[in-house]
Write a structure and sequence with these properties.
- The chain has 233 residues and is α+β, with helices and mostly antiparallel strands.
- The protein folds into two domains: 89 residues, no CATH class; 94 residues, no CATH class.
- It is built from seven helices and five strands; from the N terminus they run βββαββαααααα.
- A five-stranded antiparallel beta sheet has the order 1-5-4-3-2, with helices on one face.
- Helix 4 crosses helix 6 and helix 5 runs antiparallel to helix 6.
- The two termini are 50 Å apart.
Length: 233
């Protein structure tokens, strides 16, 4: 599922009509792009049957008023237009997950210097993220909650608080380890996010940039120049 961008337009007079502003059309495979090799390009099908649907957004505060959604869910009776709108809106969770990875788990700046270590660093963060999400799902299932209603940052703080106790007592007694894990799930379930239905914010930056020049050399060299009385241009 995706949203049509400016390089592709929808003509609802063509294709198989399902209802007003809802039809099925054939997308032909384009010419080979430079991003893939010839072997991978040949494995792709010659065409795809795509359903294009126009969705109107009536929620106050939302920037977009109309969307044209393209999807391979072709059955209009099984998946209605409102279902497609809700599915597309749920894509915002992907942005929240990326924010959790970059800000909460501090992956916004990668610290390794070689490509191999950078890939390992990224996969380590993703592995830790999936493990945390697994614990969140278990806590939500135990307390009959939605996983998205539990704060990701609150879970990390809870795990850090329990870490010394888990490391000290976890390997000694399996029964106590299970009891401790149940206590961790109970503590995680208490970190619920606030109910903010249909939030919207102005697309403006409130924080102004600091009036400093960028550091264009290693920190120790800049400090050495300051001690020598040299000023940077």
């Amino acid at each position: 599922m995706c949203r049509l961008t400016s390089h592709r337009t929808a003509d609802f007079r063509r294709g198989k009509r399902l209802s007003k502003d809802d039809h099925i059309i054939k997308w032909v495979k384009p010419a080979k792009p430079c991003s893939i090799d010839r072997q991978a390009y040949n494995l792709l099908p010659d065409f795809l049957m795509i359903r294009e649907t126009r969705v109107r957004v009536e929620q106050p505060g939302f920037r977009s008023r109309t969307l044209i959604i393209a999807t391979t869910l072709l059955d209009a009776e099984e998946v209605t237009r409102s279902d497609l709108a809700n599915l597309y809106r749920a894509r915002w969770n992907a942005e929240l997950d990326l924010r959790s990875l970059k800000e909460t788990m501090q992956m916004d700046i990668l610290r390794c210097k070689t490509p191999e270590l950078v890939r390992k660093e990224i996969w380590t963060h993703i592995l830790a993220y999936n493990l945390i999400r697994t614990i969140i799902a278990q806590a939500a299932s135990k307390h009959d909650m939605k996983p998205r209603s539990i704060s990701f940052k609150g879970v990390i703080q809870t795990l850090n608080a329990f870490q010394p106790l888990i490391a000290f007592q976890g390997e000694r007694d399996p029964a106590f380890r299970m009891y401790l894990y149940e206590q961790v799930l109970d503590a995680i379930a208490t970190h619920q996010v606030a109910d903010r239905p249909d939030p919207f914010e102005p697309r403006r930056k409130k924080r102004r940039p600091k009036p400093y020049d960028r550091l264009m050399k290693p920190g120790h060299e800049a400090k050495r120049d300051i001690l020598k009385g040299l000023t940077e241009n």
